[in-house]
Specification:
Blueprint (H helix, E strand, L loop, with lengths): L43 H19 L16 E4 L4 E4 L2 E3 L5 H21 L2 H6 L1 H17 L2 H9 L4 H26 L5 H10 L4 H21 L1 H7 L2 H4 L10 E4 L1 H4 L6 H6 L12 H5 L19 H13 L6 E4 L1 H11 L9 H4 L21 H23 L3 E7 L6 E2 L5 E11 L5 E8 L5 E3 L10 E6 L3 E11 L8 E8 L5 E7 L8
Antiparallel strand pairs: 1-2, 2-3, 4-5, 6-8, 7-8, 8-12, 9-11, 9-13, 10-12, 13-14
Helix pairs in contact: 1-4, 2-17, 4-6, 4-8, 6-8
Length: about 525
């Protein structure tokens, strides 16, 4: 039987890396940027980031090309912001300008969703799904494929210019510009029929605004994702400065558990032989090498940390090689961390002592706290989740029950009334019938109240009556001029109702109008 012997910490590969954005190294805002060369990480969080990147980029680039049949009177693009017709199409949902409150509701849901995620798992949005993070990851994939991993990129950057260096740099930046071009191109496809616009772009016949938008987004994607990278998160994004108000002692954040990592030692066996207290951290700097923000998580919570958890993957890999339990760097809550630190420091009366948190066999003592998912479900989080769900449910119910037929009426202002030769009084109205479905409909127009009064629609050559059937254009507003006449001697009320209803009795809309007479006109 062969006994397993854990590797000596001195055999662990050590990274010659310095956290350029650490507190002790932070430069004034006007200082030149020190480049960050993140090493490729491997592990469960890195795999999760790959999955998120593929899903988000896939949705962004492919969504404009999805077709959705709406009939001959509406576009067949599934997601379309039709600025010319002032419509927003999302699969089976169509939003008109006066229904912009749905967009406002989505923005409110996005805000509360961000509060919810941050309260639960810190800056997980920043670390996994933020567009800046996703495109930086994509640009890093290209950079590593052409220039190599961290050490190779550092050597290339520090070395003199040569043909090979020039070739690699030109190729890298050319591909970055192509990614930026694809990003800008995909964006404009959301505002017009994608196949038609693509053909006009290639033939040079697209509107000038399309080329200008592509050029602007190509430049911003290239600069922000390829050149500025972590500086966008540190200096341009407001969320790092807001997130502190969203976190509490039970929020999950990426944490270096110094209660088990200190004291650090690169020669743990020699230190233990002399009776020194030695923690699990072997000071290999693997966590610093993979950090895309250029910080050292062992310095504690920092504004620059985007909670991408790549340092967890790097540290777990080292712990696996040493035969030690994972979790030296892990998602943890402040309450859990503080409790364990109190044990390791004897309630703060001494430096961290590894013997305080471990038994003789190397396992953790029983009162060490480990993460429990139940701590996530606390009142604050439940409140955010409930509010988010309530807003979403209200929007869905309103969306399902909304009328797709609307009536707007404008009374003639000049003149407000006309005296006919027979002594009767005539008022003019402009009716705007909104048929918000992509098919033509027959609409019945009625008036109620104002007994004895009659309607006339001159443009259709119709006789006087109190009810007419009109043709409403599909997915459009139909304007109709209507005259209402009554006898001057009538003592009837001066208000009445216009009512429209489709032939299937599915939608109905009313409008209360005023009838002006001499001495009553306003």
């Amino acid at each position: 039987m062969t006994l397993y012997t854990a590797p000596d910490p001195k055999d662990i590969e050590r990274q010659n890396v310095e956290p350029v954005n650490a507190r002790r190294n932070r430069q004034p805002l006007y200082a030149a940027r020190r480049k960050v060369f993140p090493k490729r990480a491997e592990g469960r969080f890195r795999r999760f980031k790959w999955i998120v990147m593929l899903i988000t980029l896939g949705i962004y680039y492919l969504a404009p090309w999805i077709r959705w049949e709406r009939g001959p009177y509406a576009p067949d693009q599934a997601i379309l912001v039709d600025l010319a017709s002032r419509r927003f199409y999302f699969f089976f949902i169509e939003i008109w300008p006066q229904e912009f409150y749905y967009v406002a509701g989505l923005l409110v849901m996005a805000g509360f969703g961000l509060f919810l995620i941050t309260s639960a798992v810190g800056r997980a949005w920043c670390g996994y799904a933020c567009p800046q993070t996703v495109w930086v990851d994509l640009f890093l994939v290209v950079e590593r494929a052409i220039e190599g991993d961290r050490n190779a990129r550092m050597r290339l950057d520090a070395g003199p210019w040569s043909f090979d260096k020039l070739r690699k740099r030109v190729l890298k930046h050319a591909i970055w510009l192509l990614i930026g071009l694809a990003t800008g191109g995909a964006w404009i496809f959301y505002f017009a029929d994608a196949p038609s616009l693509a053909a006009s772009l290639l033939s040079g016949q697209a509107p000038a605004i399309a080329y200008a938008t592509i050029g602007t987004l190509t430049a911003t994607t290239y600069v922000l994702g390829g050149l500025m990278r972590e500086q966008v998160c540190t200096y341009m994004c407001p969320w790092p400065r807001i997130q502190g108000a969203m976190l509490d002692e039970n929020s999950l954040v990426v944490t270096y558990n110094d209660w088990r990592g200190e004291q650090r030692s690169r020669h743990a066996k020699k230190a233990q032989a002399t009776g020194q207290s030695v923690g699990d951290c072997v000071d290999c700097n693997a966590c610093v090498a993979v950090c895309p923000m250029g910080i050292d998580i062992r310095d504690g919570q920092q504004m620059e940390c985007i909670t991408c958890a790549l340092c967890i993957d790097a540290c777990d890999g080292v712990m696996d090689k040493l035969g030690k339990p994972r979790g030296l760097i892990a998602y943890a809550t402040l309450s859990e961390y503080a409790s364990n630190m109190a044990i390791a420091t004897d309630q703060g009366r001494m430096p961290v002592q590894s013997t305080k948190v471990r038994k003789a066999d190397g396992s953790f003592v029983d009162n060490i706290r480990h993460f429990d998912w139940h701590i996530i479900f606390r009142p604050r989080l439940v409140f955010y989740a409930a509010l988010w769900c309530m807003i979403g449910a209200a929007m869905i119910v309103h969306l399902a029950l909304r009328e797709r037929l609307e009536l707007n009426v404008v009374h003639d202002r000049n003149p407000q009334f006309v005296l006919e030769s027979d002594g009767s009084i005539r008022n003019g109205y402009t009716l705007r019938i909104l048929n918000m479905v992509p098919r033509p409909r027959k609409i019945e127009l009625n008036m109620s109240g104002l007994d004895g009064a009659m309607m006339r629609i001159p443009e259709f050559g119709m006789n006087d009556g109190r009810s007419f059937v009109l043709e409403a254009a599909p997915d459009a507003a139909t304007t109709v001029k209507v005259f209402v006449t009554r006898h001057a001697a009538s003592a009837l009320p001066s208000e009445f109702l216009f009512t429209i209803e489709d032939e299937g009795h599915e939608d109905r809309s009313t409008y209360r109008a005023a009838f002006n007479s001499p001495g009553e006109a306003k």
